[in-house]
Amino acid sequence: MAKKSVTSTKLFVLDTNVLMHDPSSLFRFEEHDIYLPMVTLEELDNNKKGMTEVARNARQASRNLEEIVGTSLNNLDDGCPLAINGNKHLSGRLFMQTSAVSIDLPMLAGSKADNQILGVALDLQKKQPERQVILVSKDINIRIKARAIGVAAEDYFNDKVLEDTDLLYTGMRELPANFWEKHSKEMESWQDAGRMFYRITGPICKSLLVNEFVYYEYEKPFHAIVRSQQGNTAVLEVVKDYTQHKNSIWGITARNREQNFALNLLMDPDVDFITLLGQAGTGKTLLTLASALTQTLDKKIYSEIIMTRVTVPVGEDIGFLPGTEEEKMAPWMGALEDNLDVLNKSDEDAGEWGRAATQDLIRTRIKIKSLNFMRGRTFLHKFLIIDEAQNLTPKQMKTLITRAGPGTKVVCLGNIAQIDTPYLTEGSSGLTYVVDRFKGWQHNGHVTLVRGERSRLADFAAEAL
């Protein structure tokens, strides 16, 4: 019986990058054991200095290790229990390398850290043949080398929100052709403050989420948003049609169904947090800015617009930039300038002077901030736009969203197919994380924009290249 319990649990050898990517990874292996080679501890020590995210994580990982090892007075060869603090459900143990490993890997050069970790994994495999030894690393090359020498290797998946980003919530769903036949029984409809509501009962209601858009595109098109959902009933509100000129926002009208849904969310005072996903040219920034200007300058709901983005260069960096925080951020804010040009031209009757005056007024109301100085701030009655949010880690995303004080609306824009931050993937991006965690909350809205509206050239390039 004892032998079975030994073989059923796995032994995971951790590479340093796993700990530096997610310091809490030590508590994510449940009943399995963890083994740390001495090189991993050395590399943690080498990376602990500085203010970067990696250095912070290295220090946190070291603190976690001290807590695990510090509580255990027994021999390290027997392992230290991982069940500390609030992690009582863990039954695995932490083992450290306590003696030198003499496995020679003639085909791998020198005493490089990666090769030492591979040597340790191979040695463990020989010493414990009845047990599955698996190397866990975020580094593709070490995983390939491990497989070449016969050691099982895996990526660290625990931080992934979704295995497949195709399953990510889109914020809308198409209603089936037989929708009215199945759901019109006991249907109620009423009007309130010029808005049309329907209470429907039927099987589809169970799967609907609050603030999810539904559309019916058959003989009589119907576009609505789910306002509440309980068991088999849901209340739908017919969306406002922003494709018509009379409903234009700062001279901008929606060009397709998804843009119309996005404007409904952006103009809704009850929605505090919005995520807009979509490839280049789908109109994310333009729609957000148009609605922000309308609600800041015309309706005076917000006192100012704050725009920020992650400064990750696509090519080589251009070095230090002179000037104030606003001036340093200016090269990153080309997208903002381009969209303001479009919004300024939308007012045909204003003339040259009128437009210049509007431009100055807009400039005073839009503040450009760097992400680096957001800690400890609180934004009251502000319209906060986070551009290129796919480059944020879940932790950075939390730091930003928790800045929101009363009366503040936060809008995250991004395209998860364009991640420039190393070690972040579509599944572990902060943007994917918030879309998944916030869905169904009554003050959250999300739309995935599909159609590019830039130009025929941009649309063709997005598809063909």
Describe this structure in words.
This protein has helices at 2-8, 16-21, 38-46, 53-70, 113-127, 140-148, 179-183, 257-266, 284-298, 325-329, 334-345, 351-365, 394-401, 430-438, 456-464, and strands spanning 11-14, 33-36, 80-81, 93-96, 133-136, 152-154, 172-174, 188-192, 195-201, 213-216, 222-230, 233-238, 273-277, 304-309, 366-370, 382-387, 409-414, 444-448. Helix content is 33%, strand content 19%. The chain is built from 15 helices and 18 strands. The protein is globular, with a radius of gyration of 27 Å. The chain folds into three domains: 2-154, 3-Layer(aba) Sandwich (Rossmann fold), CATH 3.40.50; 165-238, no CATH class; 249-464, Rossmann fold (3-Layer(aba) Sandwich), CATH 3.40.50.300. The chain starts with a helix and ends with a helix. Helix 8 runs parallel beside helix 9 (284-298) and helix 13 (394-401) packs across helix 14. One of its GO terms (molecular function) is ATP binding. Residues 10-144 form the PIN domain. Belongs to the PhoH family. Keywords: ATP-binding, Nucleotide-binding.
